Amino acid sequence: MSNKLKKPTVVDLSKMSREELEDAYVQLYTRCAVAEAKADRFLEEYRLSQQRRFGRSSEQSVAGQYSFTDFMKSNQPQPIPAAVPTMNDDEAEIKRLVDKAIGAKQAANKSNGPIPKKDLSGIEVRSVEFKLSKDKQVCSTCGSKLTFLSTTIHKELEIEPPKVYVKEYTTHHYVCHTCESQGCKHFVDAPGCPKPLFYGSPVAPSVVADCIHKKYALALPFDRLAKDYKRQGIPITKDNMCKWSINSALRFFKPIVEAMRQILLEEAAIHCDETYTLVLSWDRKKKSYVWVMTTAEYQKDHPIMIYNYRPGRSDTDARAVLDGYHGYVMCDGYGCYTSVLKENHKTHAPAMDIRPVACMVHVKREFVDALKSLPKDKWHETGAYLAVAKLQNIFHIDNEIEFETYEERKEKRMDVLYPAMVDFFDYMKAQKEESLPSTKYGKAITYALNQEEKAMRLFEDGRLELDNNMALSEGITYPHLTLERFEITAFAIKRCA
Question: Which of 274, 379, 397, 460 is most exposed, with the fewest beta carbons within 10 Å of its own?
């Protein structure tokens, strides 16, 4: 195929009528407009891909929301804004809301200096003193006796390598010779010897817990762990660790997870999300999905988070994950959360009794992407600019609501948050008529309007949240859980064995 441009056909315009000229002009204008729209769309995709690759992620500052720890610590009242942003409002205030929503605030500089002393306060201290003996407390210059002046304390953080040893259990056995002389044998074993964790295996719960912790909490492959154990002189192979993990999961952890799931299924509201993971098969890498179900923030004192591996994220997978649950599900706009509300005609699975609640963080993300696909000096000219400001204001209002009970929270939301939500969706409906559906902004509007019904369910129960961050956060850390994961694992294995 030749890359040369085709030579344009010469047309004598003087021989064309007015009607033909107008028709040709309309056709040419339409083709140019379509080409320009396609070019703008490709440019949007390019800018957005560059931002996602090199720019700062908006997830670091999502719509001004509180983190889990901030939610627990927050107790300072703030005034609730009475109005929602409009184009007639102060431009600086709208810009402040937009900048806060997209994470434009610069992160605090990370210190590369020494570890602060306050960070060492919770660690065991082993003191070592250096002082002169009485016979050496003599001045080397004049020979007079030295007098104590002061002390200097120097602290160092040290780590002791783990100790590996073989614990040998010796059980004493006893026999009654009197009974033996009468024709019956009576043997007695000294109590206290623990049963083997796995039949015929010398492994202790602490070893299995160490393997599981390093594999699933620190993401170290079994092959690398086996090499590290070999360097330490420990005869553990990756096959051993695979079998131990599988057997531990089936024998010790499965009953615990099932009990946690039963508690979770009884909750009034849960959070749910899914993310893909690559699984190595014999011929290729296969994309599978890990689903997560977690308690809502109103149960932050007794959190439960359960992960479920599934081959996909279809309607069938969603039904399997949510099987047995009846209540509110905080989720994103993926279609499987809506399709389960109807009967599956292929599998004949009945409709599920759940009530999906939209995550407004995902709604906000669509408009932030629409902004980032444009040059920054053009932001204030787009409707996405005001949409992000309105969403930021919604999160701000909800975060500042003070309440003692969730019923009180529900009532206050109806008073101060409901008008802001209605205003946002009214603005979306008005903008839909003026935007191109194929642009990032048009797609964001479509996504938002598709979530309106689910988003307004927020006002049905005060225990519901505006966001699905409980399920979106990776590795949520709860401050009141002080035990290390491998200690909890070893304790669970030892108790269940």
Answer: 460
b/e map of 211-226 (b: 16 or more CB within 10 Å)?
bbbbbeeeeeebeebb
Measured in whole angstroms, how far is the alpha carbon of residue 422 from the centre of its chain?
Answer: 29
CA atoms within 13 A on the CB side of 493: 28
- Encoding tokens for residue 104? 């434009």
304 and 263 Cβ atoms separated by less than 8 Å: yes
Q: Is the separation of the CB atoms in 456 and 410 below 8 Å?
A: no
- Give yes or no for a contact between 146 and 139, defined as CB atoms under 8 angstroms apart: yes
Which parts of 322-378 fold into alpha helices (H)? 336-339, 360-372
In the structure, what pLDDT confidence band is assigned to residue 91 with cuts at 50, 70 and 90? Answer: low
How many angstroms separate the CA atoms of 388 and 104, rounded? Answer: 13
Query: Which token pair is 497?
Result: 């064995």
Burial readout 399-429 (b: 16 or more C-beta within 10 A, e: otherwise): bebeeeeeeebbebbeeebeebbebbbebbe
- Burial classification of residue 452, based on how many CB atoms lie within 10 Å of its CB (0-12 exposed, 13-18 middle, 19 or more buried): middle
User: What sign results for the dihedral spanned by CA atoms 80, 82, 87, 93?
Assistant: negative
pTM, two decimals, is: 0.69
d(CA 100, CA 368): 11
What H or E segment, with its residue span, contains residue 174? strand 173-175
Both tokens assigned to 394: 């919604």
Instruction: Give the start-end residues of each E strand in 253-385.
Output: 269-280, 285-295, 305-310, 327-331, 354-358
Check residue 123 and give its pLDDT: 85
Q: What own/partner pairs with CB < 8 Å and gap ≥ 24 does 144-151 have?
A: none
Tell me, what's the pLDDT at 487? 45
Lowest model confidence (mean pLDDT) among 85-99, 121-135, 365-379: 85-99
